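Posting for a labmate who doesn't have an account.
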Amino acid sequence: MLGIEQKKGNDDNLCGRMIAYAKILPNPDERDSGTPFDDMIKNGLLALEGDFRMFSPRVPSKKAIDRAVDDKLNDMLESMQAEGVELPPDMDVEQMRERLHELSSMEVIPIPAKIGNFNREEDILAEDADIYYIGEFIGAGQAHFCLTTLPIYYQARFREQARKKEMDFLNEALTQIESGEFMDTDDLQNDTEELFPKGLTLNTFVGDLGKLLNVRVIPFLLALETDAQYDEQIKLFYDFMKGYPAKADIKLIDLAIRDLRSQKDSALARRILELGCQKIDAIYNEDTQKANEIAQEIIKFAKDKSSGEQS
């Protein structure tokens, strides 16, 4: 549509995080040089990213743009002074600076998104996001306009898909309530042959997910004798969790369990597994703040552990 190419993702199942980027060609019109956009372009790439999965989206700071404008103005004045160019007598530098500050305080990006810091197209495509390429532009002006409008449409589509999923879930839940097909933690613990009964998903589970993970799932997977058995049962776990929004958390649990199966005394894997289960439980219970805190703790723990091993 309109020359926009989707490089990654599925329009019918948006993940909630998007990146849009353009390639910026040199602008032969020197009058357009020296704008705040110059600092946003990395190796000819101008990228914008937005994360709409949380209800507290990131809003870009204008201070960086203010500083960029100040730096450009100061550089211009110093260059003029060095070349012996005199300012017009009616030119008020401070008034010009104030006006530029007013302009820079305007909403450059009127949606919860930010300029992406990517130096290569390969780095963009490696991100876990829905990725769109909007084409080549001479100069950043029109590219920036296109980039800032695309996330507005993306966010609306993502929210609409989320609403539809909620409605589908409610309809499914009502059907299962009528048929008595819901299962809780105790029901699952009575099933010992497989990790989950066929067809069971997170949407049809009612109960304590944290207890399910720690009492049923983790011990069951750790106790499997062969890797082939593990591979078979972990697929059931992925199927069960397919309604969970953060797929990376499921992968983290999988990797931590695999590490513990091969190295039972791995403190790193055990702690990551514990924190991963806590984060999944927090998101399941819609405790976004706790989930974010745990995510930061996971990152900090992994960094501290890595630094300790290197030293």
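Reply:
Got it, the structure tokens are right above this. The CA atoms of residues 184 and 207 lie 5 Å apart.
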